[in-house]
Design goal:
2 copies of one chain form a homodimer. Chain A is built from 11 helices and 16 strands. Chain A has a 5-stranded mixed beta sheet with strand order 2-10-9-8-7. In chain A, strands 11-14-13 form a 3-stranded antiparallel beta sheet. The first copy, chain A, has 2 domains: 129 residues, Alpha-Beta Complex (Aspartate Aminotransferase, domain 1); 245 residues, Aspartate Aminotransferase, domain 2. In chain A, 37% of the residues lie in helices and 13% in strands. The radius of gyration of chain A is 22 Å and the shape is globular. The longest helix of chain A has 27 residues. With 408 residues, the first copy, chain A, is an alpha/beta fold. At the A-B interface, α1, α3, α7 and α8 of A face α1, α3, α7 and α8 of B. Chains A, B: Its cofactor is pyridoxal 5'-phosphate.
Chain lengths: 408, 408
């Protein structure tokens, strides 16, 4: 008999995890990337160069750079954001985090307390919403169109909250390659968002972790880079542009915000080796790599859209993403994607049910997110065909796949 | 005018951080290590080998290994603990963490809620106590002697708590190279500790992060490795044996505990590159490296003891550590080491005031911790001389340094 820890555990813990059983055969979820695109040789060369040159600094916490992270990496991020995102900042304005998930945790930790309200996007990164919920906050989803948040709708939401005496803690947005819709908010709308936020006196949280993956490579100016951007707390990541297993993200914010986050970052610093290798690589072939990765992902995106069109026909609606790693699909009202998620999962096809990616779970209940970066084109074709088959079996749709009618 | 975030920040945040201004000239604090001992070339070779072989797996979160961490690393840790610490475990029993600080955070997160009581050691790692305090828990310090926790005293503490109806959540101990005293708990006493914990039905948290650094290289069996060790949650780290800037620690525990921690580890996994490089290096020249590092640290420890003896003479009392990176020094009652900490800090000599490393802060107020791994022998000599000078100026002791009397 093993010792029974139950009486010693906190009463309010989430449900226990189950053992990891490996990835599903058709893995259309998560921020995984294209395995063939990981710049293995260049990362190895970067590791070797930077360790040979600066390895002994590993003997100190934080590499002599202090708790904001490795100075050379922060300088590299500042250069990158200046040239690619029109965001002028310096190493002093940057806090390196252990992935952009820690960035979100730190942002929430300084702003959110139970009972607070945040504004998110109507289709929204699921992890952002579960984090808010866990902290006892509620959120309102701002409606989206093909250019991101609809400003008329946001204005109404802010007015309604104001009428109720509620000041939201921030507007959380992924303006560039929105998750899950893949849209890109044009600059004029970013200016309008800043104007609205200013008129209500509230901050904005800009999550830009997919922005390197915009198909044409031409990122609009970050919201934080526009006039009035001092009300923006910005975060980014290398997970999507290099490799998700590397856990390095960052926050760009003014010192009055960063200085409150630092005491809450109790991990003794973000992994130094990863920071060193990324800094070295960022100063090297990063830009060429990202250009090649974009082209690979664009090809997989085309394969995914083609497969969904072929297998689901008129039953599936979507807009072509402007970049990124996912497709946001609307199925007929008859389809409950949570049920589809379970049925498909049991047969090795993993999807994100739309309810988990929607501020209004019911409104997302016949939508789904399909990630295309990790599976091969072959797996995309097979997996989507299998998904259509399961969907037909469960819900009677799609009625046609390709030129073949399915028996009802 | 920048945007004022103040009204949006949580009301209960800790004081803001100050800008990092570089390390002090004489750095006798923190878990920093000997810079010349970082195995730079071998780490670079390990990085190159493992990236070349397995680099593409970086494209998935968690390297296809699931949220417990890179399988090869967990296997290596299990082998290491089996052969060095007499702790039989498998990869399934291990959760890789982002440093042992995250390990402590996860342990506290599953066990501690406001109002709880924990038992710590009377001289104790400061970060362990600040974490408990932050979570609203209180702690009782168990008295130490040269062999670690005194079991008669612990027995009394447990009886007293029981009489008050208090069940402590756990006993937190660093049995091997105790922080700050540098003692090693003999196996018989470990058995006795398990017996006491069993008779009160409580768990033990065993923090073994310095255990590789015992001078004679011969680690006693971990408490968790002894019969009844199922009541022990064990954690360790590579920070002290390879480099603190690498943020890889681990927890060894039964699945009923690990499965409750996993949902709370919201960082998307511990840095993969660090895990891969450590796994490769652990299977390679790790043991030889640690042997060499021990010898270097033992030399620096001797230099520190010699310097303290020379500069403080009879005013300083300490026991020779049995391993590790720090010396725990008691000064005369007249000396307030918090005041000494401030005065010395202003002149570039960083020390840990004993109150921060003591469960009873007042009892530790004339003690201090001096870390010797990072400074050179030269810096140890100069810095301790300077510290004695400042101490004499502030408190009139020591009255003699070396053969030289100080004017009162």
């Amino acid at each position: 008999m093993s010792f029974d820890y139950t009486p010693f555990l906190r009463a309010d813990l989430p449900a226990p995890a189950t053992r990891f059983g490996g990835f599903p055969k058709y893995n259309f979820v998560g921020g995984h990337n294209d395995a063939g695109s990981v710049p293995v040789a260049d990362l190895a060369a970067a590791a070797s160069a930077v360790l040979t040159r600066e390895g002994p600094t590993l003997a100190t916490y934080g590499l002599n750079s202090g708790p904001q992270g490795y100075t050379a990496l922060r300088q590299g991020i500042a250069r990158h954001l200046g040239s690619k995102a029109g965001l002028a900042c310096s190493a002093d304005d940057i806090l390196v985090t252990s992935g952009s998930l820690q960035a979100l945790d730190l942002i929430n930790a300084v702003f959110i307390q139970p009972g607070d309200t945040a504004i998110v996007e109507e289709g929204c990164y699921g992890g952002a919403m579960t984090r808010l919920k866990k902290l006892g906050a509620s959120y309102v989803g701002a409606p989206l169109d093909g250019d991101g948040i609809r400003m008329d709708a946001l204005s109404n939401i802010l007015d309604n909250l104001k009428a109720k005496g509620t000041v939201p803690k921030f507007v959380y947005t992924i303006p560039t390659v929105q998750n899950p819709t893949g849209s890109v908010m044009p600059v004029e709308r970013r200016v309008e968002l800043l104007r609205l936020a200013a008129s209500h006196g509230i901050p904005i949280v800009e999550d830009d972790c997919y922005a390197d993956l915009i198909w044409d490579g031409d990122r609009p100016t970050a919201i934080k880079g526009l006039p009035g951007g001092d009300r923006v707390v910005y975060c980014g990541s290398f997970s999507k542009s290099i490799a998700p297993a590397l856990r390095v993200g960052y926050i760009v914010a003014d010192w009055p915000v960063l200085s409150r986050m630092l005491p809450l970052k109790t991990d003794g610093g973000t992994g130094a080796l990863e920071q060193m290798v990324l800094a070295e690589y960022l100063a090297g072939s990063f830009d060429d790599h990202v250009a090649a990765l974009r082209s690979t992902l664009k090809g997989k995106c085309a394969a995914m859209m083609e497969a969904v069109n072929r297998e689901f026909g008129a039953a599936a609606e979507f807009s072509a993403p402007k970049g990124g790693i996912f497709l946001w699909v609307t199925l007929p009202d008859a389809v409950d994607t949570m049920q589809l998620f379970k049925a498909a999962g049991a047969e090795g096809v993993a999807i994100n049910p739309g309810g988990e990616w929607s501020a209004d779970a019911a409104a997302g209940s016949h939508k789904l997110r399909l990630c295309f970066a990790n599976p091969s084109v072959e797996e995309i074709r097979e997996g989507v065909a299998k998904l259509a088959e399961i969907c037909h079996r469960e819900f009677g749709v799609p009625v046609r796949s390709g030129n073949v009618g399915r028996s009802g």
